[in-house]
Amino acid sequence: MVAMDVVKEQPVTRDDPFYRLSVAQYQAMAAQGILTEDDRVELLEGLLIQKMTKNPRHIWSTENADALIQPHLPAGWFSRRQDPFNTGDSQPEPDVFVVRGKPRDYIERLPAASDVALVVEVADSTLAQDRTVKQRIYARAGIAVYWIINLVDNQIEVYSQPIMGDEPGYPAPTIYKGDDRLPLLIDGQEVARLKASDILPPPNNPTA
């Protein structure tokens, strides 16, 4: 495992003005049927961002990561896949995240960032966004551990110890490949070590 240089922040802005939605406005649009499950968007820093169509490797990686994480979760924690949680100015829908409590605790509300111990994003076409916009959102929200399962470079990037302030982010991530074992940290406790090659999908062309 090796450390990677910090990726510089790239704000989600353009020269043209935008109207930024609050989380409450976004939820109201969903409640009134203005936005439905067929509208593949998520609220990131007040902007509606289109979610990319997932290819088979992305789907497999999401399901596999969840299956590997679940058996090691201590009592009082459970995992969710591709569901929303609230961070204050955003409502991301990460591929996998680990939540405090039980599913019935969230019948009437979404999890808040303070309920979340780990966020996992599977990245192929969204790699730049996951390293910048999503990293900034999760750091600002105080998410303790953030994994990017990087399908482009066939590696796992682990971000921890979020930096708050005017330029939120994380220190340089630790990179895991092959036989490297990455710690599964839940609420500051290491509950398992998972081999990177078990989490990552097999190479597209293993004979190359």
| Global mean pLDDT | 87
Q: Helix tally?
A: 5
Percent in strands: 25-35%
User: Which sequence of SSEs, written as H and E, runs from N to C?
Assistant: EHEEHEEEHHEEEEEH
CATH superfamily caption = tt1808, chain A
C-alpha Rg (nearest Å): 17 Å
According to CATH, the fold-level topology is tt1808, chain A
The helix-and-strand class reads alpha+beta
User: What is the CATH first-level class name?
Assistant: Alpha Beta
Q: What percentage of residues falls in helices of 4 or more residues?
A: 10-25%
Shape: globular
Any idea what the CATH architecture is? Answer: Alpha-Beta Complex
Q: Strand order within the widest sheet?
A: 1-9-8-7-6-5-4
Can you describe this structure?
Strand 7 (145-150) and strand 8 form a beta hairpin. Strands 1-9-8-7-6-5-4 form a seven-stranded mixed β-sheet. It contains five helices and eleven strands; from the N terminus they run βαββαβββααβββββα. 19% of the residues lie in helices and 26% in strands. The two termini are 23 Å apart. It has helices at residues 23-31, 56-69, 127-131, 133-140, 196-199, and strands at 2-3, 41-44, 47-50, 77-80, 96-100, 116-123, 145-150, 155-160, 174-176, 181-186, 189-195. With 208 residues, it is an alpha+beta fold. It is globular. It has a single domain (2-199), classed as tt1808, chain A (Alpha-Beta Complex).
